[in-house]
Amino acid sequence: MIADYASGLEPLGNPKSFEESVSGLRGGFSERIYRIVFEGKTLTLITRADSARKREQYQIVCPNKPDRSGVPLQAPRFNGTM
After folding, report:
1. CA dihedral 18, 24, 26, 28 (to 10 degrees)
2. Beta-carbon neighbour count of residue 77 at 10 Å?
3. For the chain, what percentages of helix, strand and coil (3-state, to nearest 5) are there?
4. Is 76 part of a structural domain of the chain?
5. Which end of the chain is more exposed for a tag (fewer CB within 10 A), N or C?
């Protein structure tokens, strides 16, 4: 899985910034949302971990990019709340 992420992100080069936008609890999991800015593209990273800090989910989302159905994905809003 890590190799898949690496190969997909490599063409973007090094990020210009990587910052945590939101953190909190959701459904019993610790959730953190990061904004990653590359030259010409901004991605959203969402991580969820259980109480033992074991990563349960790790998602990278390209805001407003259509999914397979053709409907644009909606990235989480960065308003500081969950």
Report:
1. 120
2. 10
3. 15, 45, 40
4. no
5. N
Rounded Cα gap, residues 69 and 33, in angstroms: 25
pLDDT at 81: 41
Q: Are 82 and 22 in contact (CB under 8 A)?
A: yes
Can you tell me whether residue 41 is helix, strand or coil? strand
What's the pTM? 0.68
Spatial distance between the Cα atoms of 62 and 13, rounded to a whole number of angstroms = 16
Q: Please count the structural domains in the chain.
A: 1
Which CATH number characterizes residue 45's domain? 3.10.450
